[in-house]
Amino acid sequence: MAKHAKSLLSRWSSRVFLVEVDEKPLYFRLQERHGGERAPRVFGRLREADRCYSVLVCSGDRIKGAKFYPELRNKLARDLPPGCDLTTMGSFLPRVRDSFIRGYFLKSSVEYSPHIERLLRDLGRREPLLVCSYTAADGGGQLWTQRLWSPSQDETPSDYFVVSSDEPECHPSALSMINNDVFHSFEEARDVFRKCGGIIPEAASVLEMLPGSLEVCQKPKFPVIVIEGLDATGKTTLTESLRDSLGATLLRSPPECLSPWRALFDQEPPLIRRAFYALGNYITAQQIAQEGMKTPVIVDRFWHSTAAYAIATATSGPVSSLPQGGSEVYGWPSDLLQPSLVLLLTLDAEERKRRLKDRGLEKTDEEQQLDRNQLFRLRVEEAYRRISGPPCVTVDASPSADKVLQETLLLIRSNCHL
Ligand SMILES: Nc1ncnc2c1ncn2[C@@H]1O[C@H](COP(=O)(O)OP(=O)(O)O)[C@@H](O)[C@H]1O
Ligand SMILES: Nc1ccn([C@@H]2O[C@H](COP(=O)(O)OP(=O)(O)O)[C@@H](O)[C@H]2O)c(=O)n1
Fold first, then answer.
1. Pocket of ligand 1, candidates 348, 353, 359: which has the most ligand atoms within 8 Å of its Cβ, to mutate?
2. What is the CATH number of the domain that holds 319?
3. Which of 87, 109, 217, 395 can bridge 289 by disulfide, Cβ–Cβ 3.0-4.6 Å?
4. How much is the pLDDT for 24?
């Protein structure tokens, strides 16, 4: 059995599982004997004739695992029998760092079991998977058991009853966020790109754009002001006006030199996509360090965008599912230049939609999700506010463009020496 899968089995009975139903995570855990607890909510409405499966990706190679996870969804969606329900799930060891693994939860009628089990076995030959089946253990459908299959039967832990588990303090993906979703160092992000060179040839071109090492740059002489906010809050409009008003240099992250590859890496799974944006920030940081010796610098998006979208995407549900304020995941990378001031543009959802419509440009998938998914938008906004490091001031972006500019100039003058 694959080494990584084996280590996951060693504490199998302590694992907690979550199934995402309509953006809401429902939790359950395992128990050897049943003490009369109610069935976990995810099994609550099932019938005895239903059969469920969990399929968890447990590849030892995190690049391969990250690539396989979305591929697995496509394959399942294509090859599962009609009427089979497919949703995302995960499993973790409470409070154990890097213990979170992702997968899918399937629900189907028992008559399709042979077909599904054959399909899952085939998929498990491609990449290591941990597959469990869930069966009703009583006539009323109140008791459910989990049976774990593994490539080698003698290593398989026994069957367990599944029982509801309390919600953890925040979404358990937080256990594995650092250096998978949110990169806290240049070297960690570069390492991902070095390792994916064999699968994605364009990774080499991105690596060529990077500084060989991060020289300790001198602090820029002039103020560095980052403008942040969701799409269509007015960043482009404001940054261009600030450049003209302050005689500043305007930079952006990701930098222009990465634009040929942005669309490609936007299609990649979070591990690779986030590493791409993290590396973009380091290139922009170098440009800031140079230009900031000559003029003030205005930056359109920087680290806040990279971290806030990453954290909000890795979690699900309401704002309360985000890692708590003060968590290390919100920390500013110690090797990344800190701007003098970050201004976060905020706009109510309706006005933002109106501006988006007027502008009529194509949006990234993530930006489209902001429109469809109110909870996702709230998580991004809250994650923005929780990021620590340089001072971050919220600016109401709903007045006219000129009023927003005047307000911003006042803030810059009172916070930076200009
Ligand atoms: N303060 C404002 N009031 C009204 N419309 C604005 C304002 N600022 C920007 N816009 C318009 O809203 C749209 C989105 O602005 P833009 O600067 O492109 O946002 P972003 O760069 O944040 O995506 C554009 O059509 C722009 O002309
Ligand atoms: N510094 C940055 C900039 C963008 N991004 C990502 O890029 C997306 C937004 O980019 P965009 O080009 O639509 O933004 P606008 O500047 O057009 O508003 C977000 O989904 C972020 O995930 C990032 O991660 N880090």
1. 359
2. 3.40.50.300
3. 217
4. 86
